[in-house]
Structures are given as C-alpha cells and as structure tokens.
C-alpha cells in the first residue's frame, strides 16, 4: 500500500497540517483504514478510490472515522493533481458530495475544496459552561460580537471566540476530559478563535475526540466558521483568512470564499507541500510502503 504524506494549508515551504493520502483501486477494510491512520499518527488520513466519474473518499483520525476533513481533502486534491493532472475532482463522502480542485505548477502545490452545506446555532448553555470549564475560561473572556455557537460544514464544531490573542496563546485542557465532552456532544473539534480584524482570524482547534490534542490546520472548521460569519451578518467582504498552528510551531494559512446564499458551500483553499521522503514535487514520487502484515496476518 502506497501512502503519500502531504502538509495542507502550508505557509510556503513550512508549516501546514500533515495528512496521509492513500489512493487505491479499492478501499481497505474499515479496520485496516483505522489501523493505518493510527500507525501514521496524523490527525487524519484520507482514503480514496475511483468511483463512477469521481472518487469515493473516507477519512480516519488515529482513533475514529470522521465524516469530513478539510486539510486531508486539500492534501488529496494536491495528490490527485500530481498523479492525474490539474483539474476538478468530484468526491463522494459518507454523508455528502463535494469537490476539490488541485493545481501542480512550477513545483508548487495548491488546492481548493467546496465544503458541504453550512449551518450554525447558538451553543446550548450547559455545553458552553462545560467547554469553558474545560479550558479554564470565564464568560467575560469571550467576544460578545462572536457569540458561542455550534457550527457545521460537514462536521460539527463548537466555536468559542475570545477577546484577547493572549487567551488563545495560553490554551490548555485535559485530553481525556476533552475527549469525553466531545464524544457526548458529538463534536469533531472545539474551535477557539480571535478576530484580528473583520477578515483575518487566528484559531486553535482541540481535536481530542480524534486522539489529537490540537490540529494545526482545520479546513472543515474554517468552512463552518465562514458559514457562521455569514449567518450572523459579519462584515466579511466575501473572503476571510485564518491563521492557525502558530502557537504549536506549525503556522498554517487558510483562505475561505463566502458566497451570499445562506447555507451554501464554502470554498476553502490553500497551499500544500510534500513531506519527506518525497519533498521535491519535481522528482518521481516515492511512497511510504505499508505491508499488509502490519495490519493483519498475511
């Protein structure tokens, strides 16, 4: 089994969120995909196979399957562009049909996804209090212009916007307690956010339910955030930029284009970079081999 390692939403030749990419004629079994994702240890690994005129796609974190992952979709778009040429690729997920476009030009990789439909609702008071307690926050540290909310764009996230950048920098929580809360609430991540201005945001994403303390770039949460900003009438000007991963030394840059129609798909885009041992896109691709005996007895 061949596995590409691609960092999505990279900041030029550094940063980004690593994802495993497996493109096969058929998908491995559920247990095999879960084992591969756990052994790789990235926040997500994406598995894709040709189906009809597009691709059947599934995503696995080290501990569980997730319905949608933005950064792994960007990584997949980059991989498809390298192997099949630049273009648009329809993707069938477990619960939605989306698309990703991939570009490979002059040794540079980039991709853009169209998210599932978006929605947002106010955060239930009990859930909000549990989340504040988890992070050691008080209600007066939250930004009143960006009320706490459950936000969705293919996966569910809890949004907590804070007033000070320093609050974001000092994010701490218990992984076990976070996993329990997120499982009970059906959350994929908890998104902590600080608005630098109307169009530029800084974020941190707790991903305890996937066995990952923090995600350095979360395309699904960025799409959900964009939909939420549209829902509350935020003056976004049709475009936002999210900087994520700075506080963990993996600066990532995410762009989102926001159409006017409430609930409609969000376009999330960014650069990507190949990770060692195939760090030079101009060279023949070298894949990480994965023997079947690493998963189950042959």
> Assembly state here?
single chain
Please give the order of strands in the largest beta sheet. 1-2-3-4-6-7-8-17
Q: Characterize the overall form.
A: globular
Count of helical regions: 6
Determine the mean pLDDT: 92
Helix-strand layout with pairing:
Elements: E1 2-10, E2 17-23, H1 30-40, E3 44-51, E4 54-60, E5 65-66, H2 70-84, E6 87-92, E7 97-105, E8 108-114, E9 119-122, H3 125-135, E10 149-152, E11 156-161, H4 165-169, H5 175-185, E12 189-195, E13 200-207, E14 212-215, H6 219-231, E15 239-244, E16 252-257, E17 267-274, E18 288-289
Parallel strand pairs: 2-3, 4-6, 11-12, 13-15
Antiparallel strand pairs: 1-2, 1-17, 1-18, 3-4, 4-5, 6-7, 7-8, 8-17, 9-10, 10-11, 12-13, 13-14, 15-16, 16-17
Tell me about this structure.
It is built from 6 helices and 18 strands. The longest helix has 15 residues, at 70-84. It is α+β, with helices and mostly antiparallel strands and 298 residues long. The protein starts with a strand and ends in a 9-residue tail after the last strand. It has helices at residues 30-40, 70-84, 125-135, 165-169, 175-185, 219-231, and strands at residues 2-10, 17-23, 44-51, 54-60, 65-66, 87-92, 97-105, 108-114, 119-122, 149-152, 156-161, 189-195, 200-207, 212-215, 239-244, 252-257, 267-274, 288-289. The radius of gyration is 18 Å and the shape is globular. The protein has an 8-stranded mixed beta barrel.
């Amino acid at each position: 089994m061949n596995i590409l390692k691609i960092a999505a939403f990279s900041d030029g030749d550094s940063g980004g969120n690593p994802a495993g990419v497996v493109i096969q004629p058929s998908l491995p079994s559920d247990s095999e995909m879960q084992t591969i994702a756990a052994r790789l240890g990235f926040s997500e690994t994406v598995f894709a196979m040709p189906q009809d005129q597009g691709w059947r796609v599934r995503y696995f974190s080290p501990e569980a399957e997730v319905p949608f992952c933005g950064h792994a979709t960007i990584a997949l778009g980059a991989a498809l562009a390298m192997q099949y040429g630049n273009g648009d690729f329809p993707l069938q997920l477990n619960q939605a049909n989306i698309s990703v476009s991939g570009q490979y030009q002059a040794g540079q990789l980039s991709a853009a996804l169209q998210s599932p439909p978006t929605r947002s609702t106010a955060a239930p008071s009990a859930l909000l209090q549990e989340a504040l307690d988890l992070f050691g926050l008080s209600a007066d540290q939250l930004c009143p212009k960006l009320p706490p909310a459950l936000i969705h764009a293919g996966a569910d996230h809890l949004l907590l916007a804070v007033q000070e950048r320093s609050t974001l920098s000092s994010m701490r929580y218990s992984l076990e307690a976070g996993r329990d809360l997120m499982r009970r609430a059906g959350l994929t991540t908890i998104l902590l956010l600080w608005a630098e201005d109307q169009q530029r945001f800084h974020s941190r994403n707790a991903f305890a339910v996937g066995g990952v303390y923090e995600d350095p770039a979360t395309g699904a949460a960025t799409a959900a955030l964009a939909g939420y900003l549209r829902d509350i009438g935020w003056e976004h000007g049709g475009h936002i930029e999210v900087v994520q991963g700075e506080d963990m030394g993996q600066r990532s840059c995410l762009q989102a284009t926001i159409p006017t129609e409430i609930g409609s798909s969000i376009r999330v885009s960014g650069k990507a970079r190949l990770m060692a041992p195939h760090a030079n896109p101009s060279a023949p691709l070298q894949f990480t081999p994965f023997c079947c005996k690493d998963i189950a007895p042959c």
